[in-house]
Amino acid sequence: MGSGTRIAIDAMGGESGIRVTVPASLRALKSHPDLQLTLVGDSRQIETELEACGEQLSARLTLLHTEAVVRDDDKPTRVLRDRTESSMYLAVKLVEQGAVEACVSAGNTGALLLSGRHLLKTIRGIEKPAILATIPGANRNCYLLDVGANVDCKAAQLVQFAVMGSVLAESLDGLRRARVALLNIGVEDYKGSEQVKTAAALLEEHAAINYVGYVEGSALFEGIADVVVCDGFVGNVTIKSSAGVVGVINQALSEIAAAGSDSQQGALAQARLVSELQRRVDPSQFNGASLLGLQGSIIKSHGNASAAGFQFAIERAIKEARHNVPGLIAEKVAELVEIKAKSG
Length: 344
Fold this sequence. Notes:
- By secondary structure, the protein is of the alpha/beta class.
- 48% of the residues lie in helices and 16% in strands.
- It has an eleven-stranded mixed sheet, with helices on both faces.
- Helix 1 (18-31) links the parallel strand 1 (5-10) and strand 2 (35-41).
- Helix 4 runs parallel beside helix 5, helix 6 crosses helix 11 (325-343) and helix 8 (232-259) runs antiparallel to helix 9 (264-281).
């Protein structure tokens, strides 16, 4: 493989495996002439899927053969015990070796986190990695973290999440200073857990972080902040509740479209409106959660993502690789540690 953005794909991960990962990878290659992909998995199955797609093996597509797979019901610790030859583990290992700049997997979240922490290690100054997801907004999207990696978080860890989220938002979205908020049960200073209130006090002391205060769940989609920080328990409940609401909306829109209108012109206008609304709330376009805080980029795709959804996860990996997000986070953390040392 020559120069260009290099990404590893856990081809066997997720509910549909190669039936999703291979078509998504081919689409990504067509969209990015400088992209190079390594598909990790059973090469015989992958080649069969390539033939089914009517595509020859691209010069920018490499296969790394393994028949071992991390299953969704495997305990995460098993990946280190007897799954070190699995497609997931080997994809992460390619990042560790510097053979690729990022990897994408739709496999077991816990196993992926454990593989990342074991092989890539956390950035100095970051205690634990966090999972960052994209939240659709009325005017623009925002980022929410943590959404599942850490059920309980200390105030200092919430501050670290704020740093990581702001770096990603500023680099990927071109923001000068990302607005950072803490997810809370109210906007008043006296509300919230002790961890959240302590984190708020710490964030207010950091001039390098554009902290804008608390945000309630009801205002999460209003564009008040670019980055919203919470612990993994709250974040996971929030992201899954949001997905449930989107499902209800899509079902309602489908029923409206099926009902039609009394006039042909009205039916056409209604169909266009429903189609546009469904496009805007389509969850696949927000697929791809970043595992931040590691010395390398890992993107977690939803396990039941479609090929279109998995391609969005690959797009996220490409952006992070091109912007060197882990390196930027390391620089920002080191800068804040230095400022703290001087002020202390």
